[in-house]
Amino acid sequence: GRLGVLQQLQQQSHELQEVLGETERFLSQVLGRVQRLLPPWQVQTRKMKAVYLVLNQCSVSATHKCLIAEGWCAASDLPALQQVLRDGSSEAGVSAVVHRIPCRDLPPTLIRTNRFTASFQGIVDAYGVGRYQEVNPAPYTIITFPFLFAVMFGDVGHGLLMFLFALAMVLAEDRPAVKAARNEIWRTFFTGRYLLLLMGLFSVYTGFIYNECFSRATTIFPSGWSVAAMATQSGWSDTFLAEHPLLTLDPAVSGVFLGPYPFGIDPVWSLAVNHLSFLNSFKMKMSVILGVTHMTFGVVLGVFNHVHFGQWHRLLLETLPELIFLLGLFGYLVFLVIYKWLCISVTSAATAPSILIH
């Protein structure tokens, strides 16, 4: 009797396993079909959600039994908008009409950008978006921002590496794999590829001025300083050379300084003990000149805003005091720097006044 029960149970177990296997196969077929249909379904749901989102922002007119959507549109884009609405309404069988409504509100600022200007506009917008019809400073930052970066990062070698990296991104910008990359750090670099391109290019230029390539000076042209002329005219003896490990080149001695280096800083400075203090002084003064020029330019841009909006009082009460304070303090400093560069000769260099103390 027990054997019969056992066989019956085994047969039931076998039947259940067959049913389970069939169910699994059926489920995998259904899920396989769903997997293929999932991407178009996702697109459809996103479209429907987007449509409903827009419809929810419209107000319902009970009298005319229609939906009213109010929004800003650039005047030049109105024909395109009307065409799109015409095309859409002809397919759906619902008519859509565009009306221009008189409005006293200040319109939002629309600044058209392309792939080149977008990153520069992003930097300006991070500080604040200008009011409607104000001067947009972004076109000027296309030059000033990378150049002021290059003043800090002047190195031919490092700048060239940066330029080549950005150039590779620019050349590969239309490849699907590059566009689809989701790495956050990569996206940051890729968004600012044109910014990096100009930053690298300008760094190469300032690197030539600083005469630095991977932090080493290069002798492209012959140096403007002659050690031989100094040695012959100052009568350095063997005992003098033995006692003095450091020697000073005196430009007041004829033939020692032959003339300025053709472009940038003379490579002989890289051998000098006071190399850093000389360079820091030069870079600091140059940074002040560039910075004050930059700020003055910004104040002058404000003049165009005041004139455009007819706010003549702001020229007197805002721009004039700004310029007086800026140019009276820092403009005078810039004048002193340039005056000292031009008017202090080699012979009077030892007694030259200090701008800092002055």
From TrEMBL:
The chain crosses the membrane at residues 147-172, 192-210, 286-304, 324-342. One of its GO terms (molecular function) is proton-transporting ATPase activity, rotational mechanism. It is found in: Membrane. The keyword Kinase does not apply. One of its GO terms (cellular component) is vacuolar proton-transporting V-type ATPase complex. Keywords: Hydrogen ion transport, Ion transport, Membrane, Transmembrane, Transmembrane helix, Transport. The lineage of its organism: Eukaryota, Metazoa, Chordata, Craniata, Vertebrata. This is V-type proton ATPase subunit a. InterPro entries: V-ATPase_116kDa_su. It holds the Pfam family V_ATPase_I. It comes from Neovison vison (American mink). Its main location: membrane. GO terms for biological process: vacuolar acidification. It comes from the Eukaryota.
